Amino acid sequence: MIGLAAAGIGFAAAQSPAFFRIGTGGTAGTYYPIGGLIANAISGAGDKGVQGLVATAVASNGSVANINAIQGGSMESGFSQSDVAYWAHSGTGLYEGKGKVEDLRLIATLYPETIHLVARKDAGIKSVADLKGKRVSIDEPGSGTIVDARIVLAAYGLSESDIKAEHMKPGPAGERLRDGGLDAYFFVGGYPTGAISELATSAGISLVPITGPEADKMLSEYKFFSKDTVPADTYQGVGETPTISVAAQWVTSAKQPDDLVYNITKVMWNDATRAALDAGHAKGKMITLQNAVTSLGIPLHPGAERFYKEAGVLK
């Protein structure tokens, strides 16, 4: 597989195609299908994509794994939560004492990623504080979800030792919830997510609100969080639920050639890609050119920045 650094600026003229991998997340989440849509759009098939480019969406363990892969050179780009990207670039939070990932650059902010706290309907969990003593999956180590879950728990005066913590991916967590072996689980991702929709239909769920003075304090303390609301009937039988969100972002390395990232960004926002995103996934419509330059916790890649200035969304 030819590395893009080796391919250099002349990637379009290279004999072999340049590969541009997009690290996504688990196949049950939102990153994976969105990554597939974007990879198809920017691949040089026909006259719509980037000539000489083969882009692929790769399933992964999510934000942290993707940033590590970009840093290590085994992935050209990937999706990350805005909080994790910020921590990586600044060497804080999850990356405290691990050094800064100073080469991390933004291609685009994609859509809000909602913090879902999914509970069994009969578990009697009405607020985050009710998780005390309950069996709760906070996702696997290395996921962005686990960091946010700990922040949310702490805001309501709980730590991991106050709950019976499990460390499962959302798919298996949902199955365990259905079987009665789990009371609740955290999931960070765009709504509606297929696995939760299926769970709501087959077993019934409640979504626990993340609101009140505890949530307000989190919003003032952590700038990568925003207020969010899951509309009524997004999931069968679940009313409107106030919560918080982070942003899903597409990130890469400063080492990727400016012309390549410029061309990828340009194709990302053309009419054909727009149509594919609108038709391909419920979250696709929320991926807009105007939102692409919001939640800028890390610097834009110069190639992307050039395009956004030309497009008039960045001064």
From TrEMBL:
Pfam families: NMT1_3 (PF16868). Transmembrane segments: none annotated. Gene3D superfamilies: Periplasmic binding protein-like II (3.40.190.10). NCBIfam families: TRAP_TAXI. This is TAXI family TRAP transporter solute-binding subunit. The lineage of its organism: Bacteria, Pseudomonadati, Pseudomonadota, Alphaproteobacteria, Hyphomicrobiales.
